[in-house]
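User: I'm putting together notes for a lab meeting next week and I want to include a structural view of one of the chains we've been expressing. I don't have a solved structure, so I'd like a prediction I can at least talk through. The sequence is below, exactly as it appears in our construct file.
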Amino acid sequence: MGVLDSLAIGRRALGAASAGVNVVSQNVANAATPGYSRRRVLQQTADPVRRRGLWLGTGVNVRGINRASDRLLGVRVVAATGADAQASTIETTLSTAQAYFNETSGTGLSEAYSSFYSSMSELTANPSDSGSRRQVVENASTLAQTVSRTGKGLADGIDQIDGTVGDSIDQINSDLSAIASLNASIGKQGANTGPGDLLDRRDELIRGLGESAGATVELDANGQANVFIGGFAVVMGKESRTLSVADDSSGLAQVYVSSDSGKMRVTDSLGGELGGLMSSRSTMDGWLSQLDDFATNLASIVNAQHALGFDTSGNPGGDVFSVDPSSPGTTLTIDPSLQADPNLLAVAGAATADPGDGDNLTALMSLKSSATFGSGTTGATALSSLTTSVGSEVAAATSDSTSSAAQLSDLQTQRDAISKVDTDEEAIKLIEFQTAYRAAARIISAGDQMLQSLLAIG
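Assistant: Thanks for the context. Below is the predicted structure for the 458-residue chain, given as C-alpha cells.
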C-alpha cells in the first residue's frame, strides 16, 4: 500500500468527519423546529483491495444520512392529532355556547320562567293592584328577552362556525397541493434516507391537516404519502384534490371533496378542528330547535288561556307573547300594548267581574304544572331537559378532550424519544467528529510529508 493510498484514505476520512459536523450543525440549528427529526451519518467501511496476498483497507464511505423516525408511529400521531383537535374544538365551542344559558348566574331560562309564574302568584293577593300587574308584565318581558338572547347567541355561534369553516378551506387546499408537490420532489428515495428536510416539511404539513380536518395518512417505506380526508383520498403521490364549501338547501355550510365526476360531501366524516366545528354546530342546532319548540309552545299555550280572560276594561285578552319565525335564532317578544299598559292583563274570568276577580289568573298559573310542551312535559321540564342536555354535552366534551389530549401526549413522547434532538448528545457527537477530522488531517499531512520526502530523494 503506497503513500497515495494513505492520502486517499485520509481524504475519505475528512469527508466523513466533515459530513458528521454538517449533520450535527443541522441538528443543533433545528433543535426547536417543530416536526424536525434528528439526523445521523451512516458510515461504512470502504471495500478492501487485495495486493500481494494481503487485503488492505481503503478507508470509510458515507453511505447516507439517516432520518430518525418511525413510520407507523407517524401515522398514529397524525390520527391522534386529529382526534385531539376535534375533541378540544367541541369542548371550547360548546363551553362558549353554554354561557348563553347563564343558569348559574340566576338570569337563565329556568329562573326567568319561574319568576314569571311567581309574579302571577303574588298578583293573586290583589288582582287589581297596578304594581303587581306591572311586575307580571316585566317578568314576562324578561322571560321573552332571556329566550331571545339565548336563541340569538346560539344562532350567532352557528353563523360564526360556518364562517370559520369557509376560511379554513383555502389553507387546507394550499397544504394539499404542497404535500403533493413535496411527494414529487421526494420521489421514492426512502422514508428515512431520502431528503430529510423535505420529508419533515411534508410530514409536518400532514400533521397540520390532521389537526385542521382530521386527515389520516398512509406512509410507505419508499417515502411517499397518501392522505385521506373523510375516507376520501385527497393526495395520492404527486396528485391532489381540493375541498370546497357550499350551503345546502337549509342554508347550512357543507364541505365537499372534488372528484372526476363532480364532488362528494364529507361534512359528517370530518375530524380535527373542522370536524369539531361541524359536530358542535349540529349539537347547537339541536339546542336551538329545543328552544324554538319551548318558545312556540309557551306563546301558544299562554296566549290561548289569556284570550279566555278579560282585562280591567272588560275586553278579552290579547296575545301575551309572539314568536318571529323569520329572525335568526329564537325570537320571543311580548305584545307592545300589554307592555305599555298592564291593565290589559286579562286576569278576570268575566267581563263584568269585580276588580278582585282572578279566575283567569288562576287558570294561567295552573299552566306551569298542567300545560303540555310536547311529549307530555311541562314548560319547566322542557327547560330542565334543555339545560341538562347542554350540561351533559359539555361535560362529555370535556372528558373526551382530556382523554384525547392524554393519548396524543403519550404518542408525542414516544416520537420525541425517537426523533427529538438532544443537544447534549449532539455536543458529544461534535467532539467525536472534530477529533476524527483532526486525525484525518494528520494522516493527510503525514502522507504529504512522506510524498515530499520521496520526491526529494528522486
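A couple of points you could mention at the meeting. The two ends are 19 Å apart (CA to CA). The mean pLDDT is 90.

User: Perfect, that's what I needed.
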